[in-house]
Write a structure and sequence with these properties.
With about 190 residues, the chain is mostly helical. It has helices spanning about 1-30, 50-60, 60-80, 85-105, 120-145, 150-185, and strands at about 35-40, 40-45.
């Protein structure tokens, strides 16, 4: 029983940490790239999309749940009016879509189950797939629940491009940092 409690506690902490990281990078993205906003909720450069890829790859479901919690926290302050269903489904779309895409790619054997065996093409495919699926899922939720000024066929493209560019900036940023760490500590 104690290993179950310990494992549950660890997954809860990872999910909460994921939520905090996602919210922090959402705020940082808004501060740095406010001028790159297509309209509210749609950015031409969206750094948190990189965390979607990284967190589901490294943490799996706890990372996805953290993304969902972070989205709920953000949406509580951004969505106008009493449409709690929009905030709820927006969080589900933002958190679970990348995890579902990853699981699908792994099931099709288009993505390695192990991070060490992940090659650049698989990572690019995951980035493009999660960016497209996330943009489409968000836009479908917004269209279905009649979010004001939603135009699916116009808004899905800047959201997709923002997700891709943000994810690539984050992934290459992490790669740069990891490469520098290896230069400083070559034996690790």
């Amino acid at each position: 029983m104690s290993s179950f409690v310990g494992s549950s506690l660890q997954k809860t902490v990872l999910a909460l940490l994921s939520a905090v990281l996602f919210v922090c990078f959402f705020e940082l993205n808004g501060w740095l790239f406010h001028d790159f906003e297509h309209k509210q909720g749609i950015n031409w450069l969206f750094l948190p999309a990189g965390f979607r890829v990284i967190l589901v790859l490294v943490l799996g479901l706890p990372g996805a749940l953290g993304l969902m919690l972070g989205s709920w926290y953000i949406d509580a302050g951004l969505i106008d009016g009493p449409n709690i269903l929009l905030a709820f489904l927006n969080g589900v779309a933002g958190g679970l879509t990348p995890w579902l895409v990853m699981k699908y790619l792994q099931k099709q054997q288009w993505l390695s189950d192990q991070l060490q065996k992940l090659n650049p093409l698989q990572l690019l495919n995951l980035t493009l797939s999660t960016s497209a699926a996330s943009a489409a899922a968000h836009q479908m939720v917004w269209l279905w629940l009649e979010r004001p000024q939603t135009n699916f066929w116009v808004d899905v493209w800047p959201m997709f491009i923002g997700n891709v560019t943000g994810a690539l900036v984050m992934l290459y940023g992490f790669k740069f940092v990891l490469d520098r760490m290896r230069l400083v500590h070559p034996n690790r």
